[in-house]
Design brief:
Blueprint lengths: L6 E2 L4 E3 L4 E12 L5 E14 L5 E10 L8 E2 L3 E6 L2 E3 L1 H5 L9 E3 L5 E7 L10 E5 L3 E11 L2 E9 L7 H7 L10 E8 L5 E5 L6 E4 L11 E8 L4 E8 L5 E4 L5 E3 L3 E4 L9 E9 L4 E8 L7 E6 L16 E4 L12 E4 L18
Parallel strand pairs: 25-26
Antiparallel strand pairs: 1-3, 2-3, 3-4, 4-5, 6-7, 7-10, 8-9, 10-11, 12-13, 13-14, 14-15, 16-17, 17-18, 18-19, 20-22, 21-22, 22-23, 23-24
């Protein structure tokens, strides 16, 4: 996308109203927004909006004093939404090789979580960046955000404090490992007139990797889909949360089976927001096998309508898994030379349940 050498968010979003891919890149340096050297770190953002051809048609620069740990963002018709978690970085340990990057983050006790609203192109004339404070929490992921009168509503997953990501980082950061179990879906309501922010719990149980029907992104949504977990039962599953009633419907594949990040796919010409399918991968820890499941989003509690066994396991992880080995199909390769880390393979002839050679289901 020709965005330069700076880090880019793992969560670009499509704004269906203007049919643009919206993303941001960022960097941390001891320079202020004007480019002058300072003794304090600044986090520099550039929000980008790309058209259907992948051309950047809008760029909005913005800088934040200090170090900002930002993984995801949200957007509304008029605003980019950024959560500033109350953390700082021990960059000396990282630069000296004494700690990995993830272990250099420190939780700052007593600091609030700050929500920043940055005007998008097309925002009301005279709109300026806004700042709101919430009780301390750590946010990786947002489900969605939208405007409602004089309020901005943001549904996000909040942790009680800094969660440990990765076993090597846990000991270095000296964080409470129990914090990782505290992920809860909460709603932040920002009053644009008074400048006051409020927060409320939407579901009492564990919830991560939230997803909505992306045709609603930046607008009010009726449902949130996500991963959930039964820690005592050593299993994870999927949850569908009705935002009006806050009633939840769940599906658990079974003990020692772990569901990855779900993705909602709308049915063409759908008449309802939840008219479509929910896709996810399931890892079976005892047999070390993985399968791809498709559920009817109307009734996820009924279980999958189609299941595909995968030819090799996909370990449970964050967004995906990386390998230093590339598995390349042998068919259609011609005379191409494979790289040294490529392993040719022939996809199994019957990778699906029931011995079928093509994906079969009831939907």
């Amino acid at each position: 996308m020709a965005v330069g050498g700076e880090a880019v968010t793992a969560h670009p979003h499509v704004d269906p109203a203007v049919r643009r891919l919206v993303s941001f890149k960022y960097s941390v340096s001891p320079r202020d927004p004007a480019g002058h050297a300072t003794r304090r770190l600044h986090t520099h953002f550039t929000f980008m909006e790309l058209d259907g051809a992948g051309i950047v048609v809008e760029r909005v620069p913005w800088a934040l004093p200090g170090y900002a740990f930002v993984h995801d963002f949200a957007l509304t018709r008029a605003w980019y939404v950024v959560f500033e978690n109350p953390v700082s970085v021990d960059y000396h340990a990282y630069m000296l090789g004494l700690a990995p990057a993830a272990a250099s983050i420190r939780w700052d006790v007593g600091r609030p979580t700050v929500v920043h609203l940055i005007p998008r192109p097309g925002a009301p004339p005279g709109a300026r960046p806004r700042r709101f404070e919430l009780p301390p929490s750590f946010v990786f992921h947002h489900a969605n955000a939208y405007e409602q009168g004089e309020h901005v509503i943001i549904d996000s997953v909040h942790y009680d404090s800094l969660p440990g990501v990765g076993t090597p980082a846990l000991g270095k950061k000296q964080v409470d490992p129990q914090v990782s179990y505290s992920a809860r879906l909460r709603r932040a309501t920002l009053n644009l007139r008074t400048g006051v922010a409020a927060r409320k719990l939407l579901h009492p149980g564990y919830l991560e990797f939230p997803s909505v029907n992306e045709t609603c992104f930046g607008r009010a949504h009726e449902f949130v889909f996500a991963e959930t977990a039964d820690f005592e039962g050593s299993k994870s599953g999927l949850i569908k949360l009705d935002m009006a009633s806050l009633e939840a419907e769940t599906w658990f594949p079974g003990r020692h089976q772990f569901v990855g990040e779900p993705q909602f796919v709308p049915r063409p010409d759908a008449g309802a927001e939840d008219d479509g399918w929910l896709l996810a991968c399931v890892f079976e820890s005892e047999s070390l096998t993985s399968r791809f499941v498709i559920l009817d989003a109307h009734r996820i509690g009924a279980g999958p309508i189609a299941v595909a066994l995968l030819p090799h396991p996909l370990p449970h992880g964050l967004h995906g898994s990386c390998s230093d080995t590339a598995y390349m199909p042998t068919h259609g390769a011609g005379s191409a030379t494979l790289s040294s880390n490529a392993v040719p393979f022939t996809p199994p002839s019957a990778p699906l349940l029931g011995g079928e050679t093509s994906l079969q289901g009831t939907g």
